[in-house]
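User: tokens in, sequence out, please.
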């Protein structure tokens, strides 16, 4: 029995191309903003940016929003396993509407923070809101990626499986 056109190699390539393009855009913006912060704001310093928003330069050894600080190898292993599962799911279900969106956001965000861990020993965070830990573009992408993944997986379905 032939697979539907959306599960063809072309459909899979299209889903991965969209996710990859978004991941590269997130990764580029994340690395650019972190570079600008590291070059312009001394570690530990801060600047007013907008009402209620400060730019800071802090280092984070945990995951998004400083969770699991000092987790090191465990954080890396969990991140890589989650990305492998997500990419495997995209490969199996490239026809799932909008699945490329959370995949691209999550992969780009995770790779952005992974690059920081490997090259600087910690992640550079720089956006500070009142009553909230500092975060960065990768953290924003990961947060919206998780929300988008929940909507894609649990949201309204079209006709069919």
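Assistant: Sequence out:
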């Amino acid at each position: 029995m032939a697979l539907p056109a959306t599960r063809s190699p072309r459909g899979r390539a299209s889903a991965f191309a969209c996710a990859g393009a978004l991941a590269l855009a997130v990764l580029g913006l994340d690395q650019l903003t972190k570079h600008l912060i590291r070059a312009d704001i001394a570690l530990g310093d801060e600047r007013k940016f907008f009402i209620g928003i400060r730019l800071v330069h802090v280092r984070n050894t945990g995951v998004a929003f400083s969770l699991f600080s000092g987790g090191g190898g465990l954080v890396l292993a969990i991140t890589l396993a989650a990305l492998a599962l997500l990419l495997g799911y995209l490969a199996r279900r490239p026809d799932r509407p909008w699945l490329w969106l959370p995949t691209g956001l999550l992969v780009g965000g995770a790779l952005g923070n992974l690059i920081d861990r490997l090259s600087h020993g910690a992640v550079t965070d720089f956006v500070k809101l009142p009553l909230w830990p500092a975060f960065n573009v990768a953290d924003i992408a990961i947060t919206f990626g998780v929300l988008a993944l929940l909507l894609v997986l649990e949201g309204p379905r079209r006709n069919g499986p």
